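User: Fold this, then the next.

Assistant: Folding the first:
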Amino acid sequence: MVTPEPFAPLLIKFGAEVEILPKHVLAKAVADGTFTSAYGVNSDPEKVIGSGPYRLKECKPAQYTRLERNPYYFAVDKKGQRLPYFDTVVFTVVPNMNAISLRFLSGESDAHDRVYPHEYEHFKDEAKKGKFTVLEPGTGLEMNFFWFNQNTNFNAKTGKPIVAPAKLKWFRDVKFRQACSYAVDRESIIKSVYAGRGVPAYSYGTPGNVKWFNPDTQKFPYDVDKAKALLKEIGIEKHNGNDFATDADGNPIEFVLNTNTGNESREKTAVLVAHDLQELGFKVTFQPIEFNTLITKINDTRDYECILMGLAPTSTDPSGGLNVVKSDGYTHQWFPRQPTPSTDWETRLDYLMDEQNKTMDYAARKKIYDEVQAILAEQQPMIFTVTPMYYAAIRSDVGNVRPSALTYYRGTWNLEELYYKK
């Protein structure tokens, strides 16, 4: 493989993120433009070809997916036995996370890759019966944050600004964003939402990404007085004995905070964040909405003011954040797909992300990426809240379990190596 210029994340990208697909099966679909629909829930399992340890046996939408051992998988163990060990693996579909936990605790499933921090004590108590083990892989890559809409564009249909000019002025002021960050009581979120099992977050990246995390970025510990002082510097405070804050032009500081329904920890966090911001004299209306509707607001209409969500990267490499950090990225949440950077600091971020991508020396590349994290911490376009600790659970008689916090499949990421001890 030859690249047109040095490409530092080559092994990460083509070893894990870019799938190998069968040309002899899919070339025709590429040629006639039907590639994106070539595989679907109604596809004949025998025609779904992959190179992994398992192949598709049966798919029942909204019920389960059954996999069978791929006899042609390349890997073997130290004794020469071809992997995987399990002949069959079934992924079942259930309505929500609570149902997944109940099914596992009742013995109806063998592994549970996402035990929430608030469930930890209950799972530990149940594990004493000896039927399963609670895994503690540690701090993961999950980043939870809220952001303000900094989009300077106009609505194509109405011709009106996407964000009201007065609000856009607040949202694009770094002192406003920093004040909001100081106002967030992260320790309360850790205690109330994550049962004390989490760490405060202030910038892009988490301590779980040991190789690339920059621990020396600017911090914003809970300090309401400092938050109010910053706001006062830009003309935002309570005037004339009012109970609410206004800007220098007399506009009350009010906005709607959205998050998605169906995510208990996210909704609880949003309630606490709204309360913290109200302590500054802001009028914050918390409005949880259905997930797909929220995604439409973010990606299509851009019709929102403030959103609380999260990201869980699948790669530890800095290149995994290109779409988020660069100004033309689709998930540059606060102002996506900019034709040219709208601020000097975004221009710098674009340069740094391109530079780290072609810097082969780790120490030099780490220094570049440290600056990326430092800029995002200072500017606070995404106001980070808490990174939770990760937990999972698996049957006690399963061998070769090596839990990892760097993947959604915390206990089963190495599924081809797992086996029953008896």
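Now the next one, as you asked:
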Amino acid sequence: METGKKIAEKIQREAAISPSGEYVVYYKDGDWFLYEAAAGLSRNLTSGLEVSFADELHDYPSNVPGYGSPGWLEDSSAVFVYDRFDIWCFPVDGTGPVNMTEGRGREEQMTFRLLRTDPEEDSWKKGEDLLVTSYRDRTKNFGFYSLNSDSPGAVKLLEENKKFRFLAKAEKADSLVYTREDYREFPDIWKSDPEFSAPLKISDVNPQVSDYAWGNAELVEWSSLDGIPLQGVLIKPGNYEEGKQYPVIVYFYRFFSQRLHEFNTPVINHRPCFPMYASNGYAIFLPDIRFEIGRPGFASTKCLVPGVQKIIDMGVADPDAIGLHGHSWSGYQTAFIVTQTDMFAAAVAGAPVSNMTSAYGGIRWGTGLSRQFQYEKTQSRIGGSLWEYPELYIENSPLFYANRISTPLLIMFGDQDDAVPWYQGIELYMAMRRLEKDSVFLQYRGEPHHLKKYPNRLDYAVRMKQYFDHYLKGMEAPEWITSGEPFRGE
């Protein structure tokens, strides 16, 4: 007895069966296809359209994913699909696609997405007014719009220079709740009707924020050394004085400019606490990074360095007091960048890969997976095996250029890191010691990739602050920097 029929192979997990079971929509090789069970045939829905349905910002050496499909109309007459900005509707009868947001998203660089207010529903009703979220890529602000499932045209309900998060819609009342936030505004809960005609704030969790020198966030723009337009968030210190230069902590990973309107709750973890540093006279800079396959280290350098130069030219950053910090993937980038430039007064690299040739053959202890996949296909972006591109593994490894480092470097690892082998830190530290470079290695016993034990997280946060205070503010170095700590065995 036949129990199934293959309709496509090697698709990228983006597929949706219609409510009636008659159709399947799926994404493959940059296009969306519709399979009709009765005819046993597939047809390409998107090939004739001028916009891309593949991720336009994908910079990995792997198959490019699509933007997804939010699902079907309940009668299976049409399916919705996303491009980078707009919402499309594809009728199954072949009458042609409809851009439900009328191209406004792409024209205004604004991403529209359908929001399912009833978690028990798995399709969209015909003629229904749907709630839509918006996000403006240039200005990083959010909003809510309305869109009828039968006709194109998005209508603005609420949009501000804030970040909104939908929480829930009442089951038996015509009201919904959401949060609103920005860098200085805690994400309190708001209540509204579906038209957002009279939003009401119903919580006030952190009024004490106003008592602190929290700082202010603004958007900064520049171009990479390759001419790529980039953005980043500059958090100016509390009680900022125009014309005064400040020490700066640069913290990064990949894209961070979308954090412009995010409230930063003070936490003790693997990264600098932004409000704490801002209230202590530091500026914080969160730059975007665009990568290129085969040259991840060089690409990050070409993006970050002119971004830092931008805030120097703005008169905010003290050029002699700029610190760099990254963890994991950006820990690697930090270790690499200081081999390429001397513009940083100090750097902190948490759990960095320093030698891609030795890391390539290891295992990610948390998953048991060989580490080879991430270099060939994913985050490390080399694009091939060690034997195909040995020169790229060497050229992108900080270890092989440690002799060029003049920046004081603090390396941090937990010795049970389940993502990056902690011997990567040992290799870099031994190189720094051998070359008589200024370096400190913090090892936390029994800790994984991100420190879990609160005493250790607090210890790291305190030492990081002391490290930057010494090298960026000229404060007296504590003994652990000048003399180290004696080893304490079990």
